[in-house]
Amino acid sequence: MAQERKLFGILAHPVGHSMSPIMHNEAFAKLGLAYYYHPFDVPPIHLADAVQALKALGIAGVNVTIPHKESIIPYLDHLDPEAEAIGAVNTVVLTQEGRLKGYNTDGAGYIQSLRKETGIELNHKKVLMLGAGGAAKAIGVYLLKEGIAELVIANRTKEKAVRLAQHLKRYQERRADKQAKGEQTISVLDWPLVQQTGGEGFQLIINTTSVGMWPHVDQSPLALKGLGSDTVVSDIVYNPRETLFLKQAKAQGAKIHYGLGMLIYQGALAFKLFTGYEAPVNTMEAAVRRFLEENR
Ligand code: NAP
Asked: Which of 66, 130, 210, 246 to mutate to test the pocket of ligand 1 (most atoms within 8 A of CB)?
C-alpha cells in the first residue's frame, strides 16, 4: 500500500537562513515517512492568505518564525495554553477536523536541552536572564513552570525588561497550578548594575540576547565574575557553537549549556506534534551541525 504523503513547512520572511527544512526532512527520511518540509517565504502582507492556504491545501503543519510568531495568532482556531501564555506561536498543526492549532515549543525545547546537557534541577533556583526579546518570553514562562525561586531580568533597554516582568507576573497570577505562587519572585536589574556585579550569586545565568552571534564572535553580553562549579551558564546563541560568553564561563569552572540544544529540541517537539512519532534527535542534530559547518 502506498504511504500517506504529507506536506509540512515553515512560514518566515526571509526564510533563506532557516535550518528547519533540513532538520525535518532528514528526520522524515530516517523514519521512512513520505513527508516533505518546504520553506515558504511569506511577506507580512500575505500572512492571512498563507494561513487560509494551509487549510485549503491541507498542509499538515508548519513552523512559524520571524516576523510572524505573534501576528499569526488571530488567524488560528485554537491555541495551546503555553503558546497563549507566551503570546507567540512557533508550530501550527492542522487537526483532523480541519482546524489550525498553535503551539510554542521554544520554552519546552530550551528546558529539555538544558536538563539533558547539565542535569540541573530547576526547582528553587535563583536565575539571571539577560535579554527581554521573544526567546526570553518563551524561556521565562517555562522557568516559572519549572518552579524556580527567583527570576531576575536584565536588558539593555530597561523598559522591555519591565514589560516582560509584568507579562510574566500576569502569567503567574493566571496559572491554575498555584503551588509555587508566593514563593517565586520576578524582578528587573539595571543593565549597568548587572555589568558591575558580573552575575555573581546566581545559580543559572542565561544569555537570551543576540550578543556574541556570528560574525560578532568577540562580543559577550556580560563579563562574568565569581562563578563556581555549581553555577550553570547557558547561551541560546548557537552560531558559533561555543560563544565567548560560554568560553568565559568554562574558564571559571562553571557548567555550560550550548544554544544548539534548544534549536534541536524545539524542532524535536514540533516533529512529535506534526507526526505523532518521537523525533530522531541525533539525526536532527547531525543535520544542523553539518549545515552550520558547510555555511560557516
Ligand atoms: P529579539 O526578540 O530581537 O531580542 C533580542 C534581544 O537581544 C533583546 O533583549 C535586545 O536588547 C538584545 N540585544 C541585541 N543587541 C544587543 C546589544 N548589542 N547589547 C545588549 N543587548 C542586545 O530576538 P530573539 O528572537 O529573542 O532572539 C535572541 C537571540 O536568541 C538571537 O541570537 C537568536 O538567534 C537566538 N535564538 C536562539 C534559539 C535557539 O533555538 N537556540 C531560539 C530563538 C532565538 P534590546 O531590547 O535592548 O534591543
From this structure: 210
Helix ranges restricted to H, the chain: 20-30, 47-57, 81-86, 106-118, 134-145, 158-174, 191-197, 244-251, 260-275, 281-294
Residue of 139, 288, 136, 292 whose CA lies nearest to 214:
292
pLDDT band at 176 (very low <50, low <70, confident <90, very high): low
- pLDDT tens figures, 275-295: 999 999 999 999 999 998 888
Burial class of 197 by CB neighbour count within 10 A (0 to 12, 13 to 18, 19+): middle
Q: Where in the sequence numbering do the catalytic residues fall?
A: 69
Q: Is the CB of 220 under 6 A from ligand 1?
A: no
* pLDDT computed for residue 1 by the predictor: 58
Pocket test for ligand 1, best of 114, 209, 288 (most atoms within 8 A of CB): 209
Q: Strand order of the sheet with strand 255-257?
A: 185-188, 150-154, 126-130, 204-207, 232-235, 255-257
Q: What is the pLDDT of residues 97-114, one digit of tens each?
A: 999 999 999 999 999 999
What is the distance between the alpha carbons of residues 232 and 249, in angstroms, rounded to a whole number? 8
pLDDT at 180 over 90: no
